[in-house]
Write a structure and sequence with these properties.
CATH topology: Rossmann fold
Largest sheet: 4 strands, parallel
Shape: elongated
Radius of gyration: 19 Å
CATH class: Alpha Beta
Number of strands: 4
Distance between the termini: 77 Å
């Protein structure tokens, strides 16, 4: 049997390594939940059967940063806690992504005080922001789908550019006064 006959009988697939790696990454995103305050309840609710985060391959919420590639920061981040959040983020392997869940995480929310960081984008590279106080589980699932789209479009060589931005942000970790 010739090669042409074999291929027409069995079929074949052509793709790139980047496409296969991106598909595998976006189909199995493992979140690192950073539930700091009230938004954490909505983040936990996303895992229950009604919302079923498992549909997106993200039901494995690990509390070990070395096994995660997505950090979900849910809640009010104080300056004292910012150092801990950054340290945990730094322990995650590359490539990694961040969701800022809720108004307090994204902008300090209603807390305009000296102890609250006015947005985690001051010390972390945020990929997706979710709106709400607290945001509904559907908002988190929408953010997860947005992250998956972003992962699917990312090439391996794009991580070098991101690393430079992360290095710059790591210098901005807020310290206690």
């Amino acid at each position: 049997m010739g090669l042409e006959a074999k291929l027409t009988q069995d079929g074949f697939i052509t793709t790139t390594v980047d496409a296969v790696v991106a598909w595998a990454r976006k189909s199995s995103v493992w979140p690192m939940p950073m539930g700091i305050s009230c938004c954490a309840i909505e983040m936990i609710a996303a895992a229950d059967p009604k919302y079923d985060i498992a549909r997106f391959g993200s039901e494995v919420m690990r509390f070990t940063p070395r096994q995660c590639d997505l950090m979900i920061v849910a809640g009010t981040v104080t300056y004292k806690m910012a150092q801990v959040v950054r340290r945990i983020y730094d322990q995650m392997p590359d490539p990694k992504w961040v969701i800022a869940m809720g108004a307090c995480t994204s902008s300090g929310g209603m807390y305009r005080s000296y102890s609250v960081v006015q947005g985690i984008d001051q010390f972390l590279p945020v990929d997706v922001y979710t709106a709400g106080c607290p945001p509904r589980p559907e908002n988190l699932l929408n953010a997860l789908m947005t992250i998956q789209e972003k992962i699917g479009k990312t090439k391996s060589r794009d991580f070098k550019n991101r690393s430079l931005k992360e290095l710059e942000l790591s210098q901005n970790v807020p310290h206690e006064s």
